[in-house]
Amino acid sequence: MTQIVTVPTTPFDGQAPGTSGLRKKVKVFQQPGYAENFIQSVFDVVERAPGAVLVIGGDGRYHNRTVIQQAIRMAAANGYARVLVGQGGILSTPAASHVIRKYKASGGLILSASHNPAGPDEDFGIKYNIANGGPAPESVTGAMLERTRVIDRWLTVEAPDVDLDTLGETAVRGLTVQVLDPVADYADLMETLFDFDAIRKVVASGFTMRMDSMSAVTGPYAVEILERRLGFAPGTVVNAVPLEDFGGHHPDPNLIHAKELYDLMMSEDAPDIGAASDGDGDRNLIIGRGRFITPSDSLAMLAANIEIAPAYRGRLAGIARSMPTSAAADRVAEALGVPCFETPTGWKFFGNLLDAGKVTICGEESAGTGSDHVREKDGLWAVLLWLNVLAVRGISVDDLAREHWARFGRNYYARHDFEGIATEGANALMDGLKAQLADLPGKTFGPLTVQVADSFSYTDPVDGSVSANQGIRVLFEDGSRIVMRLSGTGTQGATLRLYLERYEPSFGDLDADTGVMLQAQIAAAEAIAGIVAHTGRTAPDVIT
Ligand code: VG1
Ligand code: CO
């Protein structure tokens, strides 16, 4: 009989899962009972049959191994039959999603704070994914939060730590823990989706790339797939070893944090394509020789070409994008005669659409793109789809972008982040916006006249659930828009995100500077929201 140890506890404040799980400073997670309370709250509310299988893995950041050992003992006490854990405690977020689906697990714990920095003084996170492999929907995260508020005990067993570095099975008080190769299943899946032969051929004839794994989780995946299976030269993948502090990098694949890659791609020595991924491997950055591709454009360009890849031939059912993502994908959907869905920020909102077969590809402006192959966004998947398209079409990234804009027009797009601002100021700014919504239509700001202003609310077309308050939208008569919302992934103060977009038709100026093209929208945002007054910042911390 398993000896279950019941540990009395009291609730911690603020264990609400945000956009993508519970994220806090490592120091917060190190408090006795903090992680245990949250994990027990998950186990108490999620659906699972007796003898269920649980997947556990993370992005390898500091504190990963500690929480994995805690979670294994708690899984044993909570009636799970089997835990699948990635070797070394590693599973990229998309790989975890695949493992959950492939081995019919009841769900999984993904330990990551994604693009947030790692280390003893930085961030940690825990996210629960359900049996479809996707992030728990709001009904489930809501139940978890309720549970964290009343929890009075957690269950564990007395058992030594499991050796996470050796493949194979160990028994932990009636639970079987299987340490599996974190890369193999995922790499095999990728081979079933894309035309690896076509990619190998262009690589053999001199096509080059640089992949920056930013010392985070994708290194082993990228080396296996790009260098071993596709034949790119050794060293194509840089920062390829996952480090507990990500080597001090801020693994957010954008022009600020992947600057070295950007500089290389803008130089004489640029390879044919440059790519990067984030802490947990679900985001991607694509830069061609001399050409940066915004994530919103990447979604649209991939959607327009996805049927080139073998697994997607003749089966683009629809496209989904998060609300702040540019409408470039909408134009592709319209041209191809498929529906386009607009969801709130966060991958959990794509799950129902994917499960119902309503969409095949989805994406977010924050550098996440993915498809129905898993239920997470998938950084390397997007890179491989780009490679597949370029290889088959024999075209450069820059030429593909120009061709796309010449057909669909171009959505100039930028996101301005004001990070770590005071929570009161951020809330006052959002409240001020809400109070103005009714009066804004008809008002002019420079050359712009407001047509519609609202707070975005989403009704899930599959289960009818409603998610209100998902960001403020101000749409102007010329078709341009600004969006503002507060981040749900930060761990310090508040972060204001301002999204700016302006459409230029195919006969317009397709090769202009984005900052210049968005000047009127930037000025209107300041006039409407009073960003300087509310945040004390005269300029954004990050522009992507
Ligand atoms: C951010 C992005 C959002 C993304 C989320 C999780 O959320 O804007 O698009 O889904 O991070 O991505 P927020 O609430 O901070 O804007 V990841 O790569 O952290 O799993
Ligand atoms: Co991520």
UniProtKB/TrEMBL annotation:
Gene3D superfamilies in the record: Alpha-D-Glucose-1,6-Bisphosphate, subunit A, domain 3 (3.40.120.10), Alpha-D-phosphohexomutase, C-terminal domain (3.30.310.50)
Entry similarity comment: Belongs to the phosphohexose mutase family.
Q: Where is the Alpha-D-phosphohexomutase alpha/beta/alpha domain?
A: 15-147, 185-287, 296-408
- Provide a Gene Ontology MF annotation, just one: phosphoglucomutase activity
Q: Which PROSITE patterns match?
A: PGM_PMM (PS00710)
Q: Which organism is it from?
A: Novosphingobium barchaimii LL02
Top-level class of the enzyme under EC nomenclature: isomerase
Cofactors needed by this protein, per the record, are: Mg(2+)
Superkingdom, according to UniProt? Bacteria
Q: Which residues form the signal peptide?
A: none
Q: Which GO terms describe its cellular component?
A: cytosol
Q: Which InterPro entries match?
A: A-D-PHexomutase_a/b/a-I, A-D-PHexomutase_a/b/a-I/II/III, A-D-PHexomutase_a/b/a-II, A-D-PHexomutase_a/b/a-III, A-D-PHexomutase_C_sf, A-D-PHexomutase_CS, Alpha-D-phosphohexomutase_SF, PGM
| UniProt lineage | Bacteria, Pseudomonadati, Pseudomonadota, Alphaproteobacteria, Sphingomonadales
Catalytic activity entry: alpha-D-glucose 1-phosphate = alpha-D-glucose 6-phosphate
User: What EC designation does it have?
Assistant: 5.4.2.2
Q: What processes in GO biological process is this protein linked to?
A: carbohydrate metabolic process
Which key words are in the record? Answer: Isomerase, Magnesium, Metal-binding, Phosphoprotein
Question: What's this protein's name?
Answer: phosphoglucomutase (alpha-D-glucose-1,6-bisphosphate-dependent)
What single Pfam family name could you report for this chain, choosing any that match?
PGM_PMM_I
